Amino acid sequence: MPDAPMLDALSLPGLFGLCYLAFAALALSVERHWRDLIDTRRAPPRRTVFRLRLAALLCLAAALSVAVRHDGTGFGILLWVLALSAGALGVVATVTWRTRSARG
Q1: DSSP states of 12-73 as a string?
Q2: Are 35 and 43 in contact (CB under 8 A)?
Q3: Sign of the torsion angle spanned by Cα atoms 10, 82, 18, 35
Q4: Is the CA virtual torsion 59, 28, 51, 31 positive or negative?
Q5: Of residues 6 and 61, which shows the higher confidence score?
Q6: pLDDT tens-digit profile of 62-87?
Q7: Could you read off the pLDDT of 38-64 as tens digits, one per residue?
Q8: Residue 61's CB: how many other CB atoms inside 10 A?
Q9: 12 and 80 in contact (C-beta within 8 Å)?
């Protein structure tokens, strides 16, 4: 398969990107973060919260699939947990930075 090394090289950034997106969606589904980052006047609509949480679930499932496909079940799950931690840390840093820059 000629494009296998390319897919292999893209799988790890994709894994971390999916975890980051999942935690970003989860953060935006929280009213406090929504008000800090999107709209200070209104809470997120219930439908939006549901969609954000569903998108987060799908991203986490896709990330687990990528990790298991990339490195097998044993190490893939370990890699997924590592990517979860890195994604959560990245979202915490982003939310903190954006909140502080918005407040001045």
Answers
A1: HHHHHHHHHHHHHHHHHTSHHHHHHHT-SSSPPPHHHHHHHHHHHHHHHHHHHHHHHHHHHH
A2: yes
A3: negative
A4: positive
A5: 61
A6: 999 999 998 899 999 999 999 999 99
A7: 888 999 999 999 999 999 999 999 999
A8: 12
A9: no
Tokens standing for 52? 């954000």
Residue listed under structure tokens 């918005």: 102
CA separation for the pair 33, 40 (Å, rounded): 9
Which pTM does this prediction carry?
0.86
- The burial class, CB within 10 Å (0-12 / 13-18 / 19+), for 40 is exposed
